[in-house]
Amino acid sequence: MKSNTYRGRRISVAPMMDWTDRHCRMFHRQITRHTWLYTEMVTTGALLHGDVPRHLDFNDEEHPVALQLGGSEPADLAQSAKLGQQWGYDEINLNCGCPSERVQKGAFGACLMAEAALVADCVKAMRDAVTIDVTVKHRIGIDKTESYEFVRDFVGTVAEAGCQTFIVHARNAILKGLSPKENREIPPLKYEFAYQLARDFPALEIILNGAVKTSAEIDLHLQHVDGVMLGREAYHNPYLMAEFDARYYGATDATPKSRAEVIEAMLPYIHSQLALYGRDGNGLRLNSITRHMLGLMAGIPGARTFRQALSDSKKLALGDPALLLEALTRMQPLAA
Predict the structure, then answer these.
(1) Beta carbons of 138 and 166 less than 8 angstroms apart
(2) 43, 66, 92, 291: least CB-packed within 10 angstroms?
(3) How many Å apart are CA 57 and CA 133, to the nearest integer?
(4) Residues linked to residue 13 through DSSP beta bridges, in sequence order
(5) Whole-angstrom distance, CA of residue 328 vs CA of residue 82
(6) Residue 313 banded pLDDT, cuts 50, 70, 90
(7) What are the beta bridge partners of residue 38?
């Protein structure tokens, strides 16, 4: 069913604006080898009229990695998807779930759920342009449209265009009156809608997304759907993913890195990035990478000390990656 050469999307990390950039993904890849990673949403306009390398460049170690696109013009999406494949991405994902007003002004995101036929046209155009998977991430409804039939018909229509993988954020999107943050918290979760989609469309890959925080919750959902996508929990508590390769992918080829080993594995990357882009005010700042690592010690003694050490603005300004080792040393006596 799936064309990718990697293990299935049993577990993935959601596309999150301002968070899942290439540095974050490289960090996550030190913790889990097989979990699928997604870029921040990139608009078709940014690719067709902007700096393509800035938006699409990534590290080979990030595979499997998917490019999420934002747009609603089939031709523009096709061209952007083709660029994504040329740059080496393993999947193209269409954003039909973001409820922000800025995205709505561009006539894409969650508002596209009201135009299933257009989404189908977009999917078909992209599928005609690339040989890698084209997937859709969406909500279960918009505003006060709360019936299961709405999302069922949306998935059915888009599936007819050849989409085989649907990532279901199991909440409605409220297009007016709620911020993106509130849209992640206030509309009630209806996991049973995703479960029902999996039953109604057994030939499709249905992946559930929405407030999943523990392996126990993942295990429960995997009894009903094909995969689970983590959101902010993967960012705030990334070491949760250390067991994923063995637990969900049956990987026996390597033992998980310890938290200290994750830091050590990141150091060569940080040094190379700083050398490539410079350490002055016009180049890459150390904090651009280390900010994604603040949650590495979540849940163990000394975590607060670790975060504080990595948040020292004066030391961050020096641009010395040894700050990570210092932070580790400062919290270790507390963790002993």
Answers:
(1) yes
(2) 291
(3) 19
(4) 37, 230
(5) 43
(6) very high
(7) 66
Residue 227 · residue 12 · CB < 8 Å: yes
Report the binding-site residues for FMN. Answer: 15-17, 68, 137, 169, 231-232
Residue 304's Cβ-side half-sphere holds a number of Cα atoms within 13 Å equal to 2
* Residue range 110-137, pLDDT digits in tens: 999 999 999 999 999 999 999 999 999 9
What are the tokens at 251?
């990987």
| Cβ atoms of residues 158 and 115 within 8 Å | no
Superfamily of domain 11-249: Aldolase class I (3.20.20.70)
Is 98 annotated in the active site? Answer: yes
Per-position DSSP letters for 286-326, written without gaps between them: THHHHGGGTTTTTTSTTHHHHHHHHT-HHHHHHT-THHHHH
Catalytic residue (choose from 24, 96, 98, 122): 98
Q: What confidence tens digit (pLDDT) does each residue in 146-181 have?
A: 899 999 999 999 999 999 999 999 999 998 888 888
Q: Is the CB of residue 172 less than 8 Å from the CB of residue 139? A: yes
Average pLDDT over residues 47-53: 95
Residues 6+ apart with CB under 8 A from 257: 30, 31, 242, 265
- Residue whose tokens read 């989609």: 197
Bridge partners (DSSP) listed for residue 42: 69
Domain boundaries defined on the chain: 11-249, 259-335
- Distance, CA of 62 to CA of 330 (rounded, Å): 30
Known binding residues: 15-17, 68, 137, 169, 231-232
For 283: left if phi > 0, alpha if psi spans -120 to 50, otherwise beta; the answer is beta
Predicted pLDDT of residue 102: 66
Residues sharing a CB contact under 8 Å with residue 308, sequence separation 6 or more, in sequence order: none
